[in-house]
Amino acid sequence: MTKPIVVGMGEALWDVLPSGKQIGGAPANFAFHAGQAGMDARVVSAVGTDALGTETLEALRGKQLNVDAVARVDFPTGVVNVTLGEQGVPQYEIIEHVAWDNIPFTPQLEALARETQAVCWGSLAQRSEVSAATILRFLDTMPSGEGRLKVFDINLRQQFYSLDIIEASAKRANVLKINDEELVIVSRLLRLGTTDVEQQCRALLTRYALDMVVLTCGTNGSYIFTPDETYFRTTPQVEVADTVGAGDSFTATLVSDLLRGVPVSEAHEHAVRVAAYVCSQKGAMAEWPSKGL
């Protein structure tokens, strides 16, 4: 049976942590965990023609990721300087004018879009006009309906977002993933006029005709809102190594289970379990135990 094609689209880069550099970028992290969940995981991004670009491709292949849709362009490969605050929460210094700001739309990418069952992207890679245009064109080319998932994991970083970027993606999504801090910002930008998180999420559901809003609240649990249901799961208590990539593993697990037809409540429970495990490990691309999670 053919595995569903699941795409992480946007930034592929190196997180430079106090312990050294690690391959990352939210879309690449998402694709890695979708691959562990049994999907045909692809990364859509761009790296430089520099030595670090070659190292990036080798590192992603080493994680069993398909990098056929990672372009090589004449810009430096992306790097993010990461410091870890209290409880392992990361702070980012994201270098600008790099390769993933310049992802080209190619005939190969157009063909991939037509075959993709689920895609996850964020706001960060849309800080440049080139990558923003490519991401939106990919979404417009990818068929809607037929069980396909278009997941906008909003992923607000520093000053690299705007209301226009958020709205352009939200209108093309059928699933919105957001955390509690991002919800405050988005609610203010959209003037939702309420501080109640469920009312805010349901306003987003209605405004963008979404099938689902996923709200993560760190140690305070997570919610999934659909037009008819509300789901809540507590966050398991684990000894936290760092939280880098935990949200991406949550999203990848949820998406993979939904593509298999797993009920939302069970998929949610599984996503919470995987994210907690990733928090207990160092780095964004923690390998799952052989027995599964």
CATH class: Alpha Beta
Q: How far apart, in Å, are the first and last alpha carbons?
A: 23 Å
Instruction: Give the domain tally.
Output: 1
Structural class category: alpha/beta
**Major sheet:** 9 strands, mixed
Share of residues in strands: 15-25%
Which radius of gyration do the C-alpha atoms yield?
17 Å
Concise structural overview:
This protein is 36% helix and 23% strand.
Keywords:
9-stranded mixed β-sheet, 4-stranded mixed β-sheet, alpha/beta, UDP-N-acetylmuramoyl-L-alanine:D-glutamate ligase, 13 strands, 293 residues, 36% helix, 9 helices
Secondary structure elements and pairings:
Layout: E1 5-9, E2 13-17, E3 20-24, H1 26-36, E4 40-48, H2 51-62, E5 70-73, E6 79-84, E7 90-94, H3 107-115, E8 118-121, H4 129-141, E9 149-153, H5 163-170, E10 175-179, H6 180-190, H7 197-207, E11 212-216, E12 222-225, E13 230-233, H8 246-259, H9 264-279
Helix pairs in contact: 1-8, 3-4, 8-9
